[in-house]
Amino acid sequence: MSSYHLMEIEFEHNRQKQVITPVILQDEIDTILIDCGYPNFVPLLEEAANRHNVTLQSMTKLIVTHHDMDHVGSLAALKRAYPHIQIIAHELEAPYIEGQKKSLRLEQAESTFNTLPDEDKPYAEQFMALLESIEPIAVDQTVTHKEKLPWCDGIEIIHTPGHMPGHISVYFSASKTMIAADAVVIEDDKLAIANPQYTMDMEAAIRSVQRLLEYDIEQLICYHGGLFHGHVKQALQQLIHNYTCP
């Protein structure tokens, strides 16, 4: 019997209260964590897991949806603490996670730095330093679009680029649950595109929302916003309409 747990983690970042929602999938064999927060989040992850009577020691796999620092920040620390964990990511994201290629978010920040007002540059420098501090870690298994994996009664990888080129969402078929990561977020109880100003490819991001509509979704979980309360298909269609119809 498989199940999932929303690991809502509240914290303060840049003097603002924030919440992220990593997810744990679990059956009799595997405990799979999807995304792992900022650097130094291992204690917060342990506390969140314990609230669901899960220990990180029992974790067998960690799926990384993309290489933004709030999704991979504690990846290396977790691998050191629990070396048996298998790290899984899309084949396009692996070179960034492993440090073979410079972070696209860092390249983006560097390319806009000189256009910033002087008062914003210290924050930008701090942001870039944090990105540079993310430790690379080897990816044990790469995945591709529509790849079906047998864990937890079956999960499917959905390539949902736009936010990042190798961004993935995960469909948990046993409960018809879509773990969307940053393909969509929840803002004011509505679905939205995550940080449109920083989205690498907005057209691809909208196509990825359309791709989600191909699945029978009863629960939609966003990394920023948690569990969506509402009619999922209608909300996804409305989001597409907002961006494609003037």
Brief write-up:
The chain has 246 residues and is an alpha/beta fold.
SSE diagram, text form:
Layout: E1 3-6, E2 9-13, E3 16-20, E4 23-26, E5 31-34, H1 42-50, E6 61-64, H2 69-72, H3 75-81, E7 86-90, H4 94-97, H5 104-112, H6 121-133, E8 141-143, E9 148-149, E10 155-159, E11 168-172, E12 177-181, E13 185-187, E14 190-192, H7 202-212, E15 219-222, E16 226-227, H8 232-244
Parallel strand pairs: 5-6, 6-7, 7-8, 12-15
Antiparallel strand pairs: 1-4, 2-3, 4-5, 9-10, 10-11, 11-12, 13-14, 15-16
Helix pairs in contact: 5-6, 7-8
Your description of this structure?
The protein is of the alpha/beta class and 246 residues long. The chain has two domains: 3-100 and 136-244, 4-Layer Sandwich (Metallo-beta-lactamase, Chain A); 103-135. It has helices spanning 42-50, 69-72, 75-81, 94-97, 104-112, 121-133, 202-212, 232-244, and strands at residues 3-6, 9-13, 16-20, 23-26, 31-34, 61-64, 86-90, 141-143, 148-149, 155-159, 168-172, 177-181, 185-187, 190-192, 219-222, 226-227. The strands form four sheets. It has a six-stranded mixed sheet, with no helix packed on it. A six-stranded mixed sheet has the order 9-10-11-12-15-16, with helices on one face. Strand 9 (148-149) and strand 10 (155-159) form a beta hairpin. Helix 5 (104-112) packs antiparallel against helix 6 and helix 7 packs antiparallel against helix 8 (232-244). It is globular and about 55 Å long. The mean pLDDT is 95. It comes from Paenibacillus tundrae.
